[in-house]
Amino acid sequence: xxxxxxxxxxxxxxxxxxxxxxxxxxxxxxxxxxxxxxxxxxxxxxxxxxxxxxxxxxxxxxxxxxxxxxxxxxxxxxxxxxxxxxxxxxxxxxxxxxxxxxxxxxxxxxxxxxxxxxxxxxxxxxxxxxxxxxxxxxxxxxxxxx
Length: 146
Fold this sequence. Notes:
The chain has about 150 residues and is mostly beta strands.
């Protein structure tokens, strides 16, 4: 699937798949100067790019980079970022520093991953009854830890 990428800043980088079997492409910070993220702070990191793709049955999703999260506590502030097919603005990566140390993002650092997924749209309707299941309405850890 062809993805059109528009550079919004001269120093922007294209998303890149790091291996031939990578499920997601890395997104890069596009900064004029280093960005310091203090512990507990949320920031939006610009990528300097916008995108377009024609398949409206696909959604682009911004995911965390596991190394940033597990080694440095830099996670996506919103869990994942959903980029609808009709969005044409700059891709911004909203992150939060969950560590107790300041983290510095440099220009061209890999800050997140971009994944393309199929969209399944449901038809929502009210119902007076739902089918019974063994689990029923037991949630939030009701199946245990092991």
